[in-house]
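## retry 2 of 3
previous attempt timed out at serialization; input unchanged, resubmitting
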Amino acid sequence: MTPARPGLDPELSALLDGMPLVERLTPELLAQLRLIPPTPLEPLLEGRAVERREVVVPGPDGARIALSVFAPAGTGPGSGAPCVYWMHGGGMVMGDRFSQIDIPLEWLDRFGAVVVSVDYRLAPEATGTTAAEDCHRGLLWVADHAGELGVDPERIVIAGASAGGGLTAAVALMARDRGTPSVAAQVLICPMLDHRGVTASSRQFSGEPGVWTRESNAFAWRSLLGDLPEDAVPAYVSPALAGDLSGLPAAYVDAGSAEVFRDEAVAYATRIWEAGGQAELHVWAGGFHGFDALFPGAALSASARRARGDWLGRILAPVPATAP
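## retry succeeded, writing output
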């Protein structure tokens, strides 16, 4: 029997009615979903004074990693702009660098941030740490080209939603462990952090169709893990396995109360605090997985986006000069 679960926010519940929901992903359904044309980028850029640039970066194994750079018009060497490095969602198995791009574009508008989004390789074609390594390699390119991009290398924020939130956590661990590049903060939006599926929330959202269920999550993790044995899964794949969360950049972590990832998000923020780090945690009552990306105009979505932006504004604010 399915355990009791938190209810949905009434407005979001009404918006969700009639949407095609699935109980579990399968290889056949994934193939169909990948054929759906992505949301057009042009309407999002219309009316914005944005300069766009496409870059291809060589991956660690020679693969070609595509990056899209969106900069406020006039940004260039010496601008000292903040940067948001974006990792998209899609359960590690679908999506592209333009997925959920409206979220960081809001930060371009609000903070004059240069937004760079990465097209990491997807599972099941690419498994293990491939996606995280792709993302880290793209971030290294941004740091190495900060001057050319007009970016302040001390104000590079990494961010992502769902699978991208998990990759954000993995890249923060990589940057800490490898000593490069400098990361000012990490934004983990409904992050996919733990392949084990042992939390109460992972059991609650099972057995019936939804936006992202326990069954779909298990399929996605199997696709990503490939032939990795359970005792050999690295933290760069499943960040919840990291034994030490000290020394990480400040984190913003959020999730909905009515989603699979709620408890692993809460646990990750708690462990950052236990390690002496800084984390701000929000659990949005009645929010399902990815609610603010799917329905950005809903009241709860607006609250979630505003809270994220307010936190980021505090992180990016110049440090006041010390009086002599």
